[in-house]
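stuck on this fold:
=====
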Amino acid sequence: MSKPSSKARRGSAKAPAHLSLGDALRLAVEMHRTGALDDAETLYQRILKLAPRQADALHFLGVLQHQRGRSEEAWPLIERSLQANSKLPDWHNNAGNVLLEMGRLDEAAEAYERCLALAPERPDLLNNLGVLRRAQRRPDDAEAAYRRAIELAPDFADAYNNLGNLMSDRGRSQDALALYIKAIELKPRHPEARKMLGIGYCALGRVEEAARVYREWLAEEPGNPVAAHYLAACSGEAAPVRASDAYVEDTFDRFANSFDAKLARLSYRAPQLIQAAVEAACGAPQKHLDVLDAGCGTGLCGPGLAPYARRLVGVDLSGQMLSKAEPRGVYDQLTKAELTAFIEAAPDSYDLIVSADTLCYFGDLGAVSAAACRALRPGGWLVFTVEAWSADDVSTGFHLHPHGRYSHDAAYVRRVLLEAGFEPPELQSQPLRNEGGKPVQGWVVTARVPDTAALH
């Protein structure tokens, strides 16, 4: 998003009692730039009460709402600002960014095209258009946009990285590696290019080169959780039994703004599969269950769970993801916490626990399964998805892949759940999403706590 922008945090600045409209706007923008978002929002709203069509206040309040994960509230404000002033390229760029992250791809394309009509030689805008064209599955147009951006700005590291991702999509692995290397040359601490370079080497069987990428990263940034996780994933060295809290939080905080739209482009099905499994287990919704959405993310499962829930609780490690879930308005409680610890602290509290594509960041499912069994009341249900592991070597029952996620063997999942105290679970094989143009096969798992009352 174009300025003003910053990380959201509470500010303590207060507007003087008597300001002209222009001075109030300048103060609001300064608050916005410096991260005093609560005060900036209040002042933008006061300005709009006095001047409902003030274009700058409309636009920057829309940008602020989008920063806070309220894209549905942001878009009408930005749209009204463009009706008042359609001559600023950055405003159309902001509109395209919001629409892209909302998954409204055709409208985003129109916004970017209007932006480029006003500023055809802006490499940042061409880079954004490339992202949009890739999302629209128009790879030739995406490649042309990225290459034009690089032609205009040969030192534009992000454009090289994005073009590398596109080349990887198209099976041009060597080209992708060269582009990631170029991005790192231009911006040595480029985290996405470093991650993708290592993954690219692994995909070609060049494990030592992948490991060297991550070791060099760790030498420069000791303790970096992303580099440590991918080093373990590609080399098998000291592979953890689950992803670290720091890795998960960092990954999903970065991913939050574009999470829903990216998953939609991957034909992500886990929320629908979870909802179908819940319906099969629990019957028609009657709003009579205490429900936990474990690893709720942006709340994609929330609307499907709400009809079942007397009380709906969401927990996630990523505060940025939770900020996207809150505006859905379906959760009674949202908590930032590690989910196993959160579940362990609430024995006999829930009738239903669901977890969509969260346990793929766990290898060992023993502790979380045992915690869930204790947290569920007799007759309660656990429903979750994991990626399927079908290789011959299943000695541990799970495997950490170079892309950073775990997959699980069906026999292992059944054994862990039985040992935790569940009745024999049901596992359905289903594609969870597409990746690299191919379906990612997974398990939709349904397990029930024995109903002790029914046994007497």
Notes: Confidence is low (pLDDT under 50) at residues 5-15.
